[in-house]
Amino acid sequence: MPKDPLPLLSLACLTLALTACAIGPNDQRPAVPVPAAYKEPPPASVREASAWKVAQPHDGAPRGKWWEVFGDPQLNALEEQVDVSKQLLAVAAAQLRGARAAVGVARAALGPTVTATSSVTGARQSLNRSGASSQPVDPYATRADSLLPLAASYPLDVWGQIHRNVEASLASAQASAADLETARLSIDAMLATVYFTLHGLDAQKQLLDVTTAASETALQLTINRYNQGVGSQVEVQQARTLLETPRAQAIDLGIQRAHFEHAMAILLGKPPAEFSIPPAPIAGQPPVIPPGLPSELLERRPDMAGAEWRMAAVNEQIAIAQAAFYPTVTLASTIGLESTSLSTLFSWPSALWSFGASAAQTLFEGGRRRAVTEQAQTASDATVATYRQTVLRAFQGVEDNLAALRLLVEEALQQENAVKAAEASLLLAVNRPKAGVTTYLDVITAQSAA
């Protein structure tokens, strides 16, 4: 140890003080064009609430079993079968585990590295070597040396490079968690969509069956009229066409239903041959959308959170690349034992130690560090663009569904008016044969239209 330890202590204090000198840009959310209000007018219940506010990120909120709002026990049972073990979620789950392991790798660099080695060597020196002693020695004498050192090195995070790497790994892990949640929500939503679409086809099939039965009766009546010389062959062929059309449509619905049933099996991680759902039309009404729900869903979207976490991770990579322009400072120490005899290896005179600090700076590498920094910057620009596009797509989704909600309400009113008109026409058609004004064929035609 040097007689005056002040220079060494000063160097250690200086390097420890420099650990707070983190360089590089700090993470901040980029500006995104946000509309003051939705273009599509929300439902009346939402308009009356007038509770517009600036969205606050809430992607970590528990979403719960949101599908239970539909009140369908069969859907609830199917949704419970969607699990991380399913293949569609296995990739995202594995990526999350890998990202969390990467955080541990990055954090390990914050501590010192300690290595222990042991060696025993024996050697015989040449008597004819340069500078050999002229005194007579045993020509067969050998020299043994036992060494048992314990070395520790600690790279000082002078420029914040290690801490930036930890932050980047943490952000990547958060992004992977958001990806897993996005995949889970997507599968849950897809399963619910396919479920209701499948049972919607069942309702259409039920309607086609009623139409087919009415068309069969109409065809038989038309054939009877033709046999009695009242009708014509043209009327018979027209009635036959009206019968075959719903039959062909029913076959097409059967194909679509089989495809949707197979899709549900894959979503549940089952072979299509081992999964089936009995035909049943949709029962009940869709739930009412509460006021403010579109904005709340935007706050809870995990894909937006994942895009933002990726921006943070890439931003840290810029700082890591910039830190490579500065020297690397490392503290190193060694303690151990060394002796030419095993009997004296563990005695105090055999002790050895050393302590020091070093700084290394790369002077020339052909512009590699500058290129790496530019590469990190371009990656940051790409993630910013991806984040902005994700936000815009989120607003597009809200606008699309608000537009669909408004127009489907109008369509439902028009369909309701058409149903009322068809029912009124059917009532008139039923009364006309009773008065002897027309035949029962008009009743069947009106019934098919209704």
Your description of this structure?
Strands 1, 2, 3, 4 and 5 form a 5-stranded antiparallel β-sheet that branches. The protein has one domain (6-50, 68-116, 145-449): Outer membrane efflux proteins (OEP), CATH 1.20.1600.10. The chain has helices spanning 6-17, 44-49, 73-79, 87-108, 161-227, 233-267, 293-299, 302-323, 368-434, 440-449, and strands at residues 113-116, 119-123, 143-156, 328-339, 351-360. It is built from 10 helices and 5 strands; from the N terminus they run H-H-H-H-E-E-E-H-H-H-H-E-E-H-H. Helix 4 (87-108) runs antiparallel to helix 5 (161-227), helix 8 (302-323) runs antiparallel to helix 9 and helix 9 runs antiparallel to helix 10 (440-449). The radius of gyration is 40 Å and the shape is elongated.
